[in-house]
């Protein structure tokens, strides 16, 4: 069965996480992704945070599955010529270099469009045009400048970053959307186009509800927030749900660092919840019986519920609440998730065999297409497909050996 993106060639000049997370999804969906790397070193994440000596790190392997690797010295004139050959036969190019890097190497959007008018030229940067354009960006910088950190954490604590990589991988999935849209538009226009994603913008997009609340704040306090006081900025509100229904992470037995269950109290489930926790009278108590009444003292409401959850494990709490149609979810640790049999059964936790490091686990493709199932393959070794790719471009074995001798590959 053909994959959704069969026949699409992606030239992956990206590195670290924002670009590779994008191109890995394209590879999972069937694109032929050719990762272009520096001879002798490759993507810097190959050697970062190694858990085993002398082999590619999990940082690299978990972001580069299903790709091919070619090494190419883009400072050498012959290396640039080969890149031009690859550009001519590619549908998409993805890069996340610092601002101006590719321009200085003479591979600007204007030049690449001249080489191949049908190519999609996708760039992921820290910031868009404006005062921050030349600034360097990392995951947590994007969270800091996109609205996530100022609204994450507790009221009396510092701004806090989330463990989810919304700056890097969040930008990557935004880039996927832009690339697919550009490929579709090309079927009508015959032209490629530039796709640009700024990490700050991607984080801001994911903080949309906080910008909603910033505007609501102009008209008075945010009643669903547990905070006592409000200034002129959306405050950090701990584990408040951020939606129209109040929620909280409640402690469970035996009291470990992740023994919590997140519980949301919808208006219609309050009588059932009151009955379940052994306080049926709360359903008719004027201080608790309506959503408006409960909002006035949410901390007390959740304290009462927590006295019940602390007598049960987080999974017992989940089962009991779900049986009563009460929205909830246990806090699952990374250990819980990587050992979750249901996630493994549906391909979200996948064991992959790597030629040098053996078997490792990775996160599968979160996008499920009925006619394009994903089969995960290991990340490539550095330059593993150099000879194969150059052969596809028409280079002979003797030419390839000369390129190797000259340090081009």
How would you describe what is shown here?
- By secondary structure, the chain is an alpha/beta fold.
- It has 17 helices and eleven strands.
- The strands form three sheets. It has a six-stranded parallel beta sheet, sandwiched between helices.
- The chain is elongated and about 85 Å long.
- The two termini are 34 Å apart.
Tally of individual helices: 17
What structural class is derived from the secondary structure elements?
alpha/beta
In CATH, the architecture of the largest domain is: 3-Layer(aba) Sandwich
Compressed to H and E, one letter per element, the order equals EHEHEHEHHEHHEHHEEHHHHEHHEEHH
Q: How many domain modules?
A: 2
Euclidean distance between termini CA atoms: 34 Å
Question: How is the main sheet built?
Answer: 6 strands, parallel
Mean pLDDT: 96
Give the CATH superfamily of the largest domain. Answer: Crotonobetainyl-coa:carnitine coa-transferase, domain 1
Helix content: 25-40%
What is Rg? 26 Å
> Ranges with pLDDT <50 over ≥5 residues?
none
Order of strands across the widest beta sheet? 3-2-1-4-5-6
Task: Count all strands and give the number.
Answer: 11
Q: Remind me, CATH topology of the largest domain?
A: Rossmann fold
Which percent range describes the beta-strand content?
Answer: 5-15%
CATH classification class of the largest domain: Alpha Beta
Please give a handful of descriptors for the protein shown:
409 residues, alpha/beta, Rossmann fold, formyl-coa transferase, domain 3, six-stranded parallel sheet, three-stranded antiparallel sheet, 11 strands, 36% helix
